[in-house]
Q: What sequence folds into this?
């Protein structure tokens, strides 16, 4: 366990040292600096968030040049919209992309820098599925922008929209080919290897990397290490992993548990470590959301050993 007694931890970004991280509290707007054996320290606070429904302080991502610029990127819900903010250490967050529709549910909020150093932003359909296919709406989309919030070169149509047709994207992770998005749907959560210009409202053959039936607990977030693609689940209270082939693109076998029913409901999942041999999966719990059975230490940030599907085992 890295940190305990947190309020609705949601966004999580492991720092380059692989030993510490920044975690955001969805309902309070606080960003905390955490490390093993140390008391969490407040790093910054995002003011005037709207944490009703599924909103609040959501995703956190480090700049690809974090070692040099110290910048972090945030996704937050306000009274009027969802937006992306950029934060320099010691400064106040500055909006770089505003006007993403908000709703009582399905606000999205996962953000991730891809292998192309562009920022990918997963937005929900706010409970109105039709908007996910409307090209002039930022809802139900995967957006792709540069470090200043401007549409990335090569986006279809020259706008911020990279792909569409998403419902409730609860997870996202960088892969060598781009980014994968976990979209919460019924009767199964689907993992989409997002491609430019695609509309994923209707899923055709080959559209998904994997799917997790709702009846089996579904999936909420994903993270890829050098050897595994892992997924968290709130309902099933577990993290599972698919072993990767040597090229890191295909899968070996079926999902195997990394940890199960030890920490309760697992929400955010990310990966950190200085080298492939010391990579760990970091996760947030969500046991105080009214659906879990919290213990005095909740909610927490924990670490889970990677490489189980490739021969390793265990957790902290």
A:
């Amino acid at each position: 366990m890295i940190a305990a007694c947190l309020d609705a931890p949601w966004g999580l970004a492991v720092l380059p040292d692989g030993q510490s991280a920044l975690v955001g509290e969805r309902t309070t707007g606080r960003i905390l600096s955490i490390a093993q054996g140390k008391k969490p320290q407040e790093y910054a606070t995002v003011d005037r968030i709207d944490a009703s429904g599924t909103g609040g302080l959501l995703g956190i991502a480090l700049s690809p040049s974090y070692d040099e610029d110290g910048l972090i990127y945030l996704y937050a819900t306000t009274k009027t919209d969802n937006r992306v903010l950029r934060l320099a250490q010691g400064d106040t967050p500055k909006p770089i992309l505003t006007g993403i529709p908000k709703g009582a549910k399905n606000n999205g909020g996962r953000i991730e820098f891809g292998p192309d150093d562009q920022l990918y932003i997963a937005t929900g359909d706010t409970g109105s599925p039709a908007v996910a296919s409307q090209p002039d709406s930022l809802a139900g989309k995967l957006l792709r922008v540069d470090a200043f919030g401007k549409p990335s070169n090569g986006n279809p149509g020259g706008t911020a929209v990279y792909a569409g047709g998403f419902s409730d994207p609860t997870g996202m992770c960088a892969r060598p080919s781009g980014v994968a998005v976990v979209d919460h749907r019924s009767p199964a959560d689907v993992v989409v290897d997002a491609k430019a210009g695609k509309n994923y409202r209707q899923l055709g053959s080959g559209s998904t990397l994997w799917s997790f039936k709702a009846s089996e607990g579904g999936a909420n977030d994903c993270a890829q290490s050098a050897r595994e693609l892992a997924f968290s689940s709130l309902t099933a209270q577990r993290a599972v992993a698919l072993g990767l082939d040597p090229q890191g693109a295909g899968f070996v076998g079926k999902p195997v548990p990394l940890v199960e029913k030890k920490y309760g409901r697992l929400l955010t999942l990310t990966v950190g470590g200085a080298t492939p041999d010391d990579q760990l999966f970091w996760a947030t719990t969500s046991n105080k959301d009214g659906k879990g059975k919290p213990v005095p230490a909740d909610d927490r940030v924990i670490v889970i050993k990677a490489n189980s599907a490739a021969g390793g085992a265990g957790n902290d």
Remarks:
- The longest strand covers residues 251-260.
- The chain has a mean pLDDT of 93.
- The first helix runs from residue 66 to 69.
- The radius of gyration is 18 Å.
